[in-house]
Amino acid sequence: MDKLQISGGATLRGEIAISGAKNAALPLLCAALLTREPVTFTHVPHLNDIGTMLKLLEQMGVKVMRELMTNDSGKVPGGTHSAGDTVTLDASTLDNPLAPYDLVKTMRAAILVLGPLVARAGEAKVSLPGGCAIGARPVDQHIKGLTAMGAEVSVEHGYVHARASRLKGARIFTDMVTVTGTENLMMAACLGAGETIIENAAREPEVVDLATCLNAMGARVSGAGSDVIRIQGVDALHGATHRVMPDRIETGTYLCAAAATGGDVRLTCTSSAYLDAVIDKLMDTGCEITSERDAIRLKAPARLTAVSIRTAPYPAFPTDMQAQFMAINAVADGTAVIRETIFENRFMHAVELIRLGADIKIDGNTAFVKGVAELQGATVMATDLRASASLVIAGLVAQGETVIERIYHLDRGYEALDQKLIALGARVARVK
Ligand SMILES: CC(=O)N[C@H]1[C@@H](OP(=O)(O)OP(=O)(O)OC[C@H]2O[C@@H](n3ccc(=O)[nH]c3=O)[C@H](O)[C@@H]2O)O[C@H](CO)[C@@H](O)[C@@H]1O
Ligand SMILES: C=C(OP(=O)(O)O)C(=O)O
Hints:
The chain is an alpha/beta fold. It has helices at residues 22-31, 48-59, 101-104, 114-121, 140-148, 179-190, 205-216, 248-260, 276-284, 322-330, 348-355, 385-397, 408-413, 417-423, and strands spanning 3-7, 13-17, 39-44, 63-67, 85-90, 98-99, 123-127, 152-156, 159-163, 171-173, 195-199, 220-222, 228-232, 240-243, 264-268, 288-291, 295-299, 309-310, 335-339, 359-363, 366-370, 379-381, 401-405, 427-431. Strands 22-23-1-24 form a 4-stranded mixed β-sheet, covered by helices on one side. It has a 4-stranded mixed β-sheet with strand order 2-15-17-16, with helices on one face. Strand 8 and strand 9 (159-163) form a beta hairpin. The longest helix has 13 residues, at 248-260. It is globular. The protein starts with a strand and ends with a strand. Residues 72-80 have low confidence and may be disordered. Residues 23, 108-109, 320, 385-386, 413 line the site of phosphoenolpyruvate. Residues 8-421 form the Enolpyruvate transferase domain. One of its GO terms (cellular component) is cytoplasm. One of its GO terms (biological process) is UDP-N-acetylgalactosamine biosynthetic process.
């Protein structure tokens, strides 16, 4: 199993390109199930989760064409000037609406096939994703919404079975804001009869990106980006070409890495438009941030000031950036209070950061982080995607060598992480 070896102390400087967003690309790929015509996606990040999703779609009978892009110097896909992959999906041959456990267990976003399959194929059998490191993550709201749209849904032997000859429009109020729940129901409603209204909808930019693509495919979705989304069902969708939006969490992660190391970086192919809460907090740490149309530059002070955060659905501070902010607070001046309100078990990185010398106390959903003058390198274990990113940031500033084990989590969500860090001057190596 690969590990990441980091020699701490290098200041990150220079420029890298941000990849397409994992959390936008995954639902987008599922949207292709809704039509018999080919759909092409560009700027698709080269990630393990994307590979898993494509494998899942392929075993359902979808034809997958993946054109790997090379960077400016003609080298590996997903390098420092990544153009992303181009993926064309042809679901005209969809004949097996099944998502088996062995694929779903490695990637919770696989539940996103449920809505499109019922809408297009009239049935779906999708393994329940089960719990994971950050929390239980049930899918009851996905089921509640499909049931309201007239699907017969049962959960047996660890699988959700859903059937509907044709879904019908419904008014759905989700009990909590759910991102993939909103996406699943929005996709399903596109082929339903009549109007569906999703209230308490997620407002995340990835939901808007999906709605934009669905509309390009002939859907009639309005209100995405607000908490009420209206979908007028249509009889069929057609093919389209869509560029995946930039990854705002990857962007935020590199901004944090640069901030922690006292660096000066420019991130291209991205935008500060979806990162207000994160950028606001980074400015509170003392960083200077300049936003350009398609780029962001961050210059860090010699030492950061601690900042408190509270995670909540968009446009508030994203839970997917909480771990990275714990890492920067671990070496900042002062004490920060970090409150996690989305997932019940998303402090797994704290114990590993403590092993590197951080001063962190946890009380329920709140972490108290007292900045220390320095961290010391050690061997640590990655437990989930963003926890792993926080350990990378800590390793970059720690004295000596840090070895991060189980980096398959990072490969799920960060395209060419080691290459991008090396391009910014980090001393990082992937070792077997
Ligand atoms: C692929 C993708 O886009 N993943 C993102 C998505 O995950 P995901 O869509 O799985 O997260 P949700 O927004 O659904 O989860 C929010 C909260 O609602 C709960 N819940 C959700 C659905 C449901 O049916 N029942 C229920 O109880 C969850 O357990 C969690 O406590 O949004 C999360 C919250 O911004 C991000 O951390 C993930 O990176
Ligand atoms: C939790 C995340 O992803 P997923 O929903 O795919 O597990 C994430 O991107 O931080």
